[in-house]
From TrEMBL:
Any GO MF annotation of the entry: hydrolase activity
Keywords on record: Endonuclease, Hydrolase, Nuclease
PANTHER family in the record: CALCOFLUOR WHITE HYPERSENSITIVE PROTEIN PRECURSOR (PTHR14859), ENDONUCLEASE_EXONUCLEASE_PHOSPHATASE DOMAIN-CONTAINING PROTEIN (PTHR14859:SF15)
Lineage: superkingdom: Bacteria
Classification lineage: Bacteria, Pseudomonadati, Pseudomonadota, Alphaproteobacteria, Hyphomicrobiales
Annotated Pfam families: Exo_endo_phos
Name of protein: Endonuclease/exonuclease/phosphatase family metal-dependent hydrolase
InterPro entries, per the entry: Endo/exonu/phosph_ase_sf, Endo/exonuclease/phosphatase, GPI-anchor_lipid_remodeler
Domain named Endonuclease/exonuclease/phosphatase: residues: 38-255
Amino acid sequence: MAKSQGILSAGIVAAIRKRRPTIVNRDAAVSRGDIVIASYNIHKCVGTDGRFDPARTAQVITELGADIVALQEADQRFGERAGLLDLEHIRREAHLVSIPISPFSEKGHGWHGNVLLLREGAVSDVRQLNLPGVEPRGALVVDLDLKVGSLRVIAAHLGLLRHSRARQAETIMQVAADGGDRPTLLIGDLNEWRMGKRSSLKFLSPLFDASHATVASFPSRFPLFPLDRVLGNPHHLVTSVAVHDSPLARLASDHLPVKASIDLKAALKGGDEDGNAGLMGMEPA
C-alpha cells in the first residue's frame, strides 16, 4: 500500500509540474502552415455542475478553433445510443463537419461514442474498429487527404482496466503499422496516466512515444492526470500540446480538451529525405 501511495504521489507531482505547457495558438499555427488538432471527452454533455447542456459543450468545441477534433462519449452509452450534440449547429458555428460512419443506431453520432470532426479535406477511408476488453470500446481509423498531404487519424477511447488497455493498444498498433508511409495520429481519451513500465501505453512503442508532451487534463476543475493524448508517428509530427483551460471548459465536462499543433509538411518531407517508406520504428512495407 505504501509503495502504491508513493507511485500515486509521484504521478500527481509530475502532473502538477506539467500544468503550464506551451499554449497552442491557432493563428500562429496557421501562419506556419501547421494543423491544429484537438481531443475532447465531452462526458455525454454533462458538466461538473451535474447539468446536461449540449449547447455549452458545442460552445467549448467552437472555442477550440481546431481543424480536426476527436470527441469521446458523444452518444448515449445504452438504450438508443442516441447522439447528444446538434451537429448542424457545430457545422455552422465551428465550421466542423462530422465524418460519416455507420452508428450503432439511427439516432447515433459516433462509434462507441467516438466522433471525428473535420474543417476541410477529403476522406479516403474510414474503418470502425472494435477494441478488445471487458467493456465495449472502439476506435475510428480515418485516412484523410488534406491540402498538405495524407494523414491517418486513429480516434480512440480506451478502457478503464489496465489489462484491457494493453490489449487495445496492441490492436491499435496493428492498424497503425499497416499505414505505410502515411503520418499517423493517435488521439483520444486513453485512460492512462502512468508512465514507464506500469503504463499500458508502453505497448504503443516504438510507433508512438506516450511520454511525449503529456499534459494534465483530468479532472477539469483541477487537472492532475494526463488521460487525454495526441500522439504522432513520426514522433516529430506533433510540435506542441496543451490543455484548453477556459472557464467554460472547466464547467462543461470532467475532462479538459487537449489541443496540439502538427507539422504535416515537415513529417512528409522528413520521410522523403530519409528514403524510408515505412513509419518510424517499422520496416518499409
